[in-house]
Amino acid sequence: MVKIVREFFFFVSFLALLLNGCAGPAETGKLRVVASIAPLAYFAERIGASHVAVSVMVPPGANPHSYEPSPRQVARLGEAALFVKAGSGIEFELAWMERFLSINPALKVCNGVEGIRLLPVKHDGFAHQDERFDPHYWLSVANGMVIARNVERALAAADPARRVEYAANLAKLQAELQLLDREIQGKLAGLKNRRFLVFHPAWGYYADSFRLQQIAVEEEGKTLTPRQMQRVIEQAKANRISVIFISPQFSASQAQTIAREIGGKSRSVDPLASDYQDNLRRATSAFIETMR
Length: 292
Ligand SMILES: [Zn+2]
Prior knowledge:
4-stranded parallel beta sheet; globular
């Protein structure tokens, strides 16, 4: 009798498991994708569309140069099929990628930067030979098109049954990005003053691809010495710049000091926004206003 009861319970719980498996969370049947930063998640979402459940490692407002994933995030990597990494030397990835793979050795990795030429970090508009590379490559639309192709390839490899659909989504996104590139170029055409001042040097690729010049205050993550601050302030004044752009991920206090010194203000542009295309439009409008 005990045995029958036990078997009955086993059967019921098995049934529950089965039902749960079919009708359970909306994510069932979807390919689980984890992206290290939100702009990369955008590409996975656009190309994977309804077949992927995408999550982001570095949450909005957090700084990818110093972020530490939560234990829950790390544990959830066990269920992921694909990880989309920036691959450009972002500190968080350098520190954690190996751990992620040891937790889930079957995890496939898409390297977003593949096929993209990284630029050296620039100071005062000049490249220094011994410097490391600027990791913020996703902010040029041309690079966005390469990322899209990398993500499509990785999704097709992880889920070959849907490769035709992924290819179609890629084609649609590429067409949009081509239009976006032209749209931004059109908006910037004819501007004589093409310099803008940013606190964190995230907009180098964007500037390069649109023939603008980013003047950056900070050298990746370091606080400025008073002398460096003074030099930036002088440079801004010489270029009649009155707006300093800050990223929401970084402390604004030094930026505010600079804004005060140049008799201007600070404004926010986000290098890590999840709405990739609209964010580039917003940033362009913000830069244009200050370059007039
Ligand atoms: Zn950065």
